[in-house]
């Protein structure tokens, strides 16, 4: 177990290093700099741009800049924002990441609360009206982009029914009462994932239901719930669990467009703004944060495999 953890930790560090290197190189490959826009928008002098460039060390060779960034990164320092001068990237991300994490977690809960039961019922009642209806709805939700569904839900719940304000994301996460405004955005964000999870659950359950041990459990007179939940579903969880890590990471980090539509004060708008303004510090910090979420989520899923199926052992 110790060797496995050390190996995974090394793989994680290598992955994050490659992500940082790729992002850094791509960021500096694009022509222009983070202060060029000030010359056009505010008419600042070239001397000011030169001083700012020297202050942030952007006039140093790229290997020195990258080595300096890595040195600060291992100390937990993500540097300063160029767009919001004087503010730490760490503080900005901590403030913006909370709404995104809440939205992703809510969407993740909705996906599992709907996707797995629908998949199980569809498999148990295969080739019936219930199965056809769930598969048809799942195919539709998978085909409709989340931002299109977001506009439809916004039109229905905010404009026609007036249950929520149009900018329902305002103040989201500030209190428990504000979490209700995240239900509609969470539904829009999680709808395609719900369709994917329900289809995966149905396929896994159909494969398990045809196994000999399930027929044996039925022949012993065990209850329907025991057969389907304890014997079938538990053994069908491995492919479902494999999807869990990327799914959670994708919901947390993939809500940029949804946040913009519903006016959520999350990290998505900050990331778009940093890319537009060529804010190197925020671009690097946000990318590294997203990469860390994805890597950690997958690592936790790997550790959960033996808990779901004791036959799996980590060597």
Short description:
The protein is an all-alpha fold and 315 residues long. 74% of the residues lie in helices and 0% in strands. It has a domain at 90-308: MetI-like (MetI-like fold), CATH 1.10.3720.10.
Write the SSE topology.
Layout: H1 2-29, H2 36-41, H3 46-55, H4 62-73, H5 89-124, H6 129-143, H7 146-160, H8 183-209, H9 212-219, H10 224-253, H11 256-262, H12 267-276, H13 280-308
Which fold name fills CATH's third level, the topology of the domain at 90-308?
MetI-like fold
* Mean of all residue-level pLDDT scores: 84
- N→C terminal distance: 7 Å
What kind of sheet is the major sheet? none
Per CATH, the architecture of the domain at 90-308 is: Orthogonal Bundle
How much of the residues is beta strand, in percent? Answer: under 5%
What string gives the helices and strands in order? HHHHHHHHHHHHH
CATH class of the domain at 90-308, named Mainly Alpha
Shape: globular
Within CATH, the superfamily of the domain at 90-308 carries the name MetI-like
